Amino acid sequence: MSIVLMFVCLIIAFLVNFTRKTRNRRFYQLLEQFPTHPSYYPLIGNAQLLAGSLEGVLEKVEKIMKPYDRLVYWLGPLPVLVLKKFDDISAILNQSVDREDIDIMKEWLGTGILNAKYEEWKKSRRVLSPAFSSDMLPKYAQVFDKNASKLIDKLRNIADNDEQTDVLDWIRNANLDSIVENSMGMSIESCGKAGENFCYSIMEAMKQGTKRIQYPWLIPHYIYMVYAKLTGKMKNIEHLQYLPTKILKDKMKNNRVPQDENNPNHNGIVVDSTKTIIDLLIKKSPTESGFDEMRMRDELLLMTIGGVETTALTVSSLMLMLAINQDIQQKAYEEVTQLTTNQEGLTEDHSTTDFKYLEQCIKETLRMFSPIMVTSRRTHKEIVLKDNKVVPANMFVATLIHLANYDADLYENPDKWDPEHFSEQAVEKRPKNSQLSFGYGSRSCIGAKYAMMSIKTLIIHIIRNYHLSTSLKEFTKENLKTDLCIRSKIGYPIKLTSR
Predict the structure, then answer these.
(1) What is the mean pLDDT of residues 472-483?
(2) CA neighbours closer than 13 Å in the CB half-sphere of residue 166
(3) DSSP calls for 293-336
(4) How far apart are CA 231 and CA 229, in angstroms?
(5) Which of 176, 188, 257, 494 pairs with 330 at a CA distance of 20 to 30 A?
(6) Cα gap 456→314, rounded to integer Å
(7) What percentage of residues in the chain have a pLDDT greater than 70?
(8) Helix (H) and strand (E) counts for the chain?
């Protein structure tokens, strides 16, 4: 019976595939220009290549892509064009503005600026752009500075004891405090149990996103929702969405007043001053069709989750590399002490943009240990690549940022962490914006300046107050794993000594 069932499934798969290719002949003709991985099986495609433990996904991806610059990878019945060269990636990201229809995080994060379709993305961009303007960034800087100072005090509990500590949790919590305060106007500590649940669910969301890439049968929405209920993940989804929903409702309620002719406002909502992202959303949303409470909640979730883990991982990686490379740490420390007057960190005379060498260290860390492995697009038209190969319209394209950042054609000795990769002379030799950690094109990260300010503020306070050391002799891409974000397999073990 089982053999008959298997035979029937294979016949069905063959007929479906034949019909699809007949109806989309141009699409599949163009697809033949690109190599396909030979380990292809009916129904599952190449999915078996990434199955198994999350620990080895990065190594598997690098091994799969080693012979190829471009590869058609079959995610079940769906063909995915995978790219790792900057010229190809920039062509796709410049000319394709739509995300892929398959959204593996929608159940967790809803729909916001990161994963919205093009027309909805334009709405989000209009509403959120003022949140990252030159007027707003100084307000955020005050919060970053305050929470960085708090972190310095907390780190005194683990400093000067001759023991190494994995610093990621410390950095993540400080960063989460800043982002929640800047986005929602509250400290995470004041949120009690809801705040704890929110923090834990952020990590679960990332693990689940990677799981769905590894096991494509979990991609369909209804199948995943059944899985989430059976495994208890629905509770995590509820915890993740509860906090921004509650804060948003409370904020809107507190800012709602009766409408009258002497008090013009939008839908009865008045915001006297815009200090946080939630203030701006409440102020702007009535002027943008479809920007209801749920949409605002989704934007808050994406702003929070998009910044918390990526920034924490970057700061932790940078601390580890400074601890390994003592000469570079000393050079960065000397720059910091020259531009700050005391151990509290920044002064009014200097902004984070003044720390040029430290910025080189950050950019090199983002290159080698970019928290984001891949970004995706759905092409809306045929796109001609540099060698005249044509990417078909309606193609799902995955751009491997992590591998592009190790391209030997762009970086001399790419496996070595070296801030001189981002000296003025080195940058001039490369194509503009070839470091892809914040994306490329019109849909690049809207909060790039915000993120750099957050990273710089934290690291300025840390190295101004503590000398960093570690027992590790090196830290390379072989030490990395991914669960939607790229992170260390071995943690971030650092010893802090008070200066």
Answers:
(1) 90
(2) 9
(3) HHHHHHHHHHHHHHHHHHHHHHHHHHHHHHHH-HHHHHHHHHHH
(4) 6
(5) 176
(6) 10
(7) 87
(8) 18, 11
Phi/psi for 269 (5° steps) reads -100, 125
Mean of the per-residue pLDDT values of the chain: 85
Radius of gyration of the chain (CA): 24
**CA–CA distances in Å: residue 393 to residues 74, 98, 102, 308, 474:** 17, 12, 16, 35, 44
Residue 84: pLDDT band (50, 70, 90) is very high
Q: Tell me, what amino acid is at 303?
A: M
Instruction: For residue 362, give the nearest of 454, 228, 266 by alpha carbon.
Output: 454
pLDDT 10s digits, 19-36: 666 667 899 999 999 999
Distance between CA 343 and CA 127 in Å, rounded?
38
CA nearest 441: which of 78, 4, 22, 95?
95
User: Considering only 154-168, 282-296, 346-360, 429-443, which range has the smallest mean pLDDT?
Assistant: 346-360
The alpha helices in 255-292, defined as continuous H runs, are 277-284
pLDDT for 310 beyond 80: yes
Structure tokens at 250: 């409370």
Taking phi over 0 as left and psi of -120 to 50 as alpha, with beta for the rest, 491 belongs to: left
Angstrom distance (rounded) from CA 282 to CA 356: 37
Nearest residue to 395 via CA among 91, 146, 161, 132? 91
pLDDT at 8: 58
